[in-house]
């Protein structure tokens, strides 16, 4: 209740809501006394509809998943319905004072806290207003002039209510943002506090000879940092039985009893030891892992506490390691809110610091054993520094208060190119620094860093040094205050960053430049051309994007090897670069129609451009500012002419054959992506048409996009919507008797997005995209399904009359032995006969790879399939291959049939094809017969079969069955006249 009251007060303060402002809010929505009177008049009558209203309201809500989960408990729903009924009454009670506002804000806060969204609020009011308006119309049937003003009054109260609820939501959102900000601030403060703790500990260790003093300082910091009551830090050692035990180094002074206190004080000098493993301390030593216990009394690992020891409410044990071995642990107890994995993670930097201190302490302890007590501090510090100077791979020196190097190691001599340590000792570091650092002079910055090191401790920064020979060296510098020969000095560590910077530059080189040719890669080309396009928009330049492909690069690799192939790419890149570059910037790398260089307006040049790139494989890309399409063509022609001269590769003369695709800004496209896609498309067409170069245009791009969309839809339909494909069947008849001898299966596609797509469009695209085998499989399945249906119905035309279903087999499929084997297997598995099928192979498909095609055709013949050669005479016909193919039928293309009566040449070709077929023992089938005169002429010429609109249009399966299968089954007649 207190939290709710606090939240309500906060909303009132946040919105400055009082009697005056609330009245202003009502005035803004024109909520007047007349409105209150209208609603008061409806208050009692509306109660008659309360149950119906509440039920309808919750029926609507329960149709949504979130409401079903929220209101799953019937008791909760009943309470809410009762509360809702009270609330609905208040809406028409006519009392809309500041107490009403407070109540609505309270409800809004409650709803926000349970997770109801503002969309829920709006939706709920929409349903309430819709239902209540209906009831108002019923109540005021006798006074229809009051219906509209009454409903308007209700809407005003609803709007008032919504604004109050939204105030609560906005406050909650504000509070969430503030909480998030506070969380980020707390985390930052937490990390800063931890780092400051580490800095103080490191400084204390460096300046104080006592390791235990540093640990006591650390323990106090940890207790404060974790809000604990007490704790300890100790070494984990091994006894004579190699069992671990704990020897304390730092312990909180807590009030034990006299006996325990005496034991602690008697062992304090040498360190209190704990050998018991059966408690929380021992769990850390035995497992070597952090131990968290927020209920020690019920924790099976707890062994209790000594008599007189304070009650243990929570415990955290943290091991720390050196060289992979546990060497110590921290124990903390009685944190206010207990401990968690997050506590362990937050303290991980402390554990890393302890590992470093442990190593340093080992060195100190070893030195202490050999030094006299009176000289311990001075000699210990100096020996530490001496060891560091001798053993460190980093360059180290000692600088006195006068900023003079008094000592250094051999690594420093090497870093600065000196002959010996004496060359550096006595010098100021400024003598071997650049005069200026980024943003300030070296002298000024050096004084600042030295002052900070002496007063605040450890400093780290980057610095540009010079060798004694004047060469620049980027270094990382750390400054640490030390006592050396009894004086306060600065220990300096210089770390050479040259190799790191070189690696960074190498990474940048790999990210933006082609490793083989040294030219820009696709990333850099993209970045720079996009910038050029921005300039072009401001200064109205025409930009040509050129893609250049080495057509015969693969041949070079196959004949001379991959190394020679790479050498050719490098040489081509160098020659193109030398051709287009008369200077380093793109401004001087372009040509106009007069073959002369011209400059981009110098105001537009604010960076260098590398207009040439190798974007992949053997494809180079060029961006150039040109005056016209003719200028672009001239530039490309000059480039290609330059590349015609032979290259000497692997002691051989190599000629290159190039193709280019060109797209222009702004004529063809206005973005980098569409321009480069246009250039790529143009390059593909140039290669396909064997042209040296090809210009992209908008119509071509649209056509490519449409073909790409059709390909995607074909693939989608094959996987998810095969019903969009259907077959049509066109009868094939005997020209002498006009009886049915077969039928050609024709595929139709009615896509849900594209609509009906002609086969002349989608079949070639399916072939291009490698989808034709899947399409053909679908045709085979549909055909087999129809055949099985007819045979089950008892139609014996196929066995008795040898009627066949003709299926077109693509050139892509005839070369695919696996596809053919799957087809044969499917036919046999379904119980159909290969003799039921006529496979139509195009002449051009066979001639694509005659040897492979002939082998597959022989296999099909052995299986007893009938084979027809489609479109004979349309390609490069070869009588020798025709003899080897041993097909059953030659199909005469409709191109010759439709005009043969009016074109003597076509008539001659038809006669020749028929004669040729008779010589090789084949039948002939004419396509495209559309009138009786052509049908009679073919009959006279001796053509065996025909198909076309004269006999029948392509039919659906049902239509074909009715008109041809059933008819021919019952009567042996042919054409249904």
Question: Could you characterize what this model shows?
Answer:
- The chain is α+β, with helices and mostly antiparallel strands and 977 residues long.
- It folds into 5 domains: 176 residues, Orthogonal Bundle (Globin-like); 161 residues, GAF domain (Beta-Lactamase), CATH 3.30.450; 130 residues, Beta-Lactamase (2-Layer Sandwich); 184 residues, 2-Layer Sandwich (Alpha-Beta Plaits), CATH 3.30.70.270; 223 residues, EAL domain (TIM Barrel, Alpha-Beta Barrel).
- Helices cover 52% and strands 18% of the residues.
- The protein has an 8-stranded mixed β-barrel with strand order 21-22-24-25-26-27-28-29, surrounded by 5 helices. The protein has a 6-stranded antiparallel β-sheet with strand order 3-2-1-6-5-4, with helices on both faces.
- The chain is extended, with a radius of gyration of 46 Å.
- The N and C termini lie far apart (94 Å).
């Amino acid at each position: 209740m207190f939290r709710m009251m606090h939240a309500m007060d906060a909303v009132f303060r946040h919105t400055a809501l009082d009697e005056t402002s609330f009245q202003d809010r009502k005035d803004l929505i024109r909520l007047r006394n007349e409105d209150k009177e209208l609603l008061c008049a409806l208050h009692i009558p509306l109660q008659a509809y309360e149950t119906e209203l509440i039920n309808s309201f919750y029926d609507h809500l329960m149709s949504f998943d979130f409401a079903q989960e929220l209101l799953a408990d019937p008791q909760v729903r009943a309470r809410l319905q009762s509360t809702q009924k009270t609330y609905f009454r208040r809406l028409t009670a006519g009392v809309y004072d500041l107490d009403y506002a407070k109540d609505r804000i309270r409800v809004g806060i409650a709803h926000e806290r349970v997770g109801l969204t503002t969309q829920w609020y709006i939706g709920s009011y929409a349903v309430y207003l819709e239902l209540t308006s209906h009831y108002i119309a019923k109540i005021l049937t006798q006074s229809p002039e009051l219906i509209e003003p009454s409903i308007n009054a209700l809407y005003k109260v609803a709007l008032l209510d919504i604004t109050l609820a939204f105030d609560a939501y906005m406050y909650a959102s504000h509070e969430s943002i503030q909480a998030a900000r506070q969380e980020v601030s707390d985390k930052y403060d937490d990390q800063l506090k931890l780092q400051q703790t580490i800095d103080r500990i490191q400084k204390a260790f460096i300046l104080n000879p006592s390791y235990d003093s540093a640990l006591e300082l650390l323990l106090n910091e940890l207790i404060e940092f974790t809000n604990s009551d007490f704790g300890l830090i100790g070494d984990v050692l091994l006894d004579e039985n190699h069992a671990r035990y704990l020897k304390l180094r730092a312990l909180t002074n807590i009030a034990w009893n006299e006996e325990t206190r005496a034991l602690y004080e008697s062992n304090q000098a040498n360190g209190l030891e704990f050998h018991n493993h059966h408690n929380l301390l021992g769990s850390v030593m035995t497992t070597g892992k952090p131990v968290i216990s927020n209920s020690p009394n019920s924790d099976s690992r707890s062994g209790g506490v000594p008599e007189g020891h304070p009650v243990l409410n929570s415990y955290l044990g943290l091991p720390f390691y050196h060289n992979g071995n546990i060497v110590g642990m921290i124990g903390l107890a009685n944190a206010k809110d207990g401990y968690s994995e997050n506590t362990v993670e937050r303290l991980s930097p402390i554990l890393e610091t302890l590992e470093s201190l442990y190593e340093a302490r080992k060195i100190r302890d070893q030195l202490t054993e050999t030094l006299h007590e009176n000289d311990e501090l001075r000699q210990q510090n100096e020996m530490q520094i001496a060891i560091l100077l001798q053993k460190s791979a980093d360059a180290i020196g000692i600088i006195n208060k006068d900023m003079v190097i008094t000592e250094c190691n051999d690594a420093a001599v090497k870093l600065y190119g000196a002959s010996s340590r004496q060359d550096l000792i006595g010098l100021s570091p400024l003598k071997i620094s650049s005069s200026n650092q980024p943003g300030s002079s070296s002298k000024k910055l050096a004084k600042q860093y030295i002052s900070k090191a002496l007063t605040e401790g450890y400093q780290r920064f980057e610095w540009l040094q010079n060798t004694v020979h004047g060469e620049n060296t980027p270094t990382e510098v750390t400054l640490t205050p030390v006592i050396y020969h009894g004086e306060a000095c600065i220990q300096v560590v210089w770390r050479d960053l040259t190799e790191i910077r070189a690696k960074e530059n190498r990474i940048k080189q790999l990210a933006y430049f082609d490793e083989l040719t040294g030219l820009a890669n696709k990333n850099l080309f993209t970045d720079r051309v996009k910038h050029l396009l921005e300039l072009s928009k401001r200064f109205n330049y025409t930009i040509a994007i050129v893609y250049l492909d080495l057509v015969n690069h693969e041949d070079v690799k196959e004949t001379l090897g991959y190394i020679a192939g790479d050498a050719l790419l490098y040489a081509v890149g160098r020659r193109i670069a030398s051709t287009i570059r008369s200077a380093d910037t793109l401004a001087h790398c372009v040509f106009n129609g007069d073959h002369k260089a011209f400059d981009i307006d110098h105001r537009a040049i604010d960076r260098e451009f590398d207009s040439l790139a190798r974007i992949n494989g053997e494809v180079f890309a060029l961006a150039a500012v040109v005056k016209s399409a003719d200028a672009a063509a001239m530039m490309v022609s000059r480039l290609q002419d330059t590349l015609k001269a032979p290259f000497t590769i692997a002691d051989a003369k190599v000629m290159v054959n190039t193709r280019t695709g060109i797209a222009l800004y702004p004529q063809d496209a206005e973005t980098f992506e569409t321009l480069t896609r246009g250039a790529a498309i143009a390059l593909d067409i140039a290669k396909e048409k064997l042209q040296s170069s090809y210009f992209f245009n908008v119509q071509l791009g649209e056509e490519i996009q449409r073909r790409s969309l059709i390909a995607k839809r074909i693939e989608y339909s094959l996987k998810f919507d095969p019903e969009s494909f259907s077959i049509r069947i066109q009868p094939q008849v005997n020209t002498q008797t006009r009886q049915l001898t077969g039928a050609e299966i024709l595929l139709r596609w009615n896509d849900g997005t594209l609509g009906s797509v002609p086969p002349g469009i989608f079949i070639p695209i399916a072939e291009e995209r490698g989808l034709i085998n899947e399409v053909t499989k679908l045709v085979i399945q549909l055909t087999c399904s129809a055949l099985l249906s007819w045979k089950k119905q008892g139609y014996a035309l196929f066995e008795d009359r040898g009627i066949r279903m003709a299926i077109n087999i693509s050139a892509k499929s005839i070369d695919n032995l696996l596809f053919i084997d799957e087809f044969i297997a499917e036919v046999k598995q379904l119980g159909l006969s290969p003799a039921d099928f006529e496979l139509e192979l195009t002449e051009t498909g066979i001639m694509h790879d005659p040897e492979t095609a002939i082998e597959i055709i022989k296999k099909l013949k052995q299986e007893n399939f009938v084979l027809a050669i489609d479109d004979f005479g349309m390609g490069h016909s070869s009588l020798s291959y025709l003899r080897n193919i041993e097909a059953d039928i030659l199909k005469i293309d409709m191109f010759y049939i439709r005009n043969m009566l009016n074109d003597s040449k076509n008539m001659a070709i038809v006669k020749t094809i028929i004669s040729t077929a008779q010589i090789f023992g084949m039948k002939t089938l004419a396509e495209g017969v559309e009138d009786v005169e052509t049908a009679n002429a073919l009959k006279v010429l001796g053509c065996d079969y025909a198909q076309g609109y004269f006999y029948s249009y392509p039919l659906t399966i049902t239509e074909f069955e009715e008109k041809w299968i059933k008819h021919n089954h019952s009567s042996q007649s042919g054409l249904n006249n």
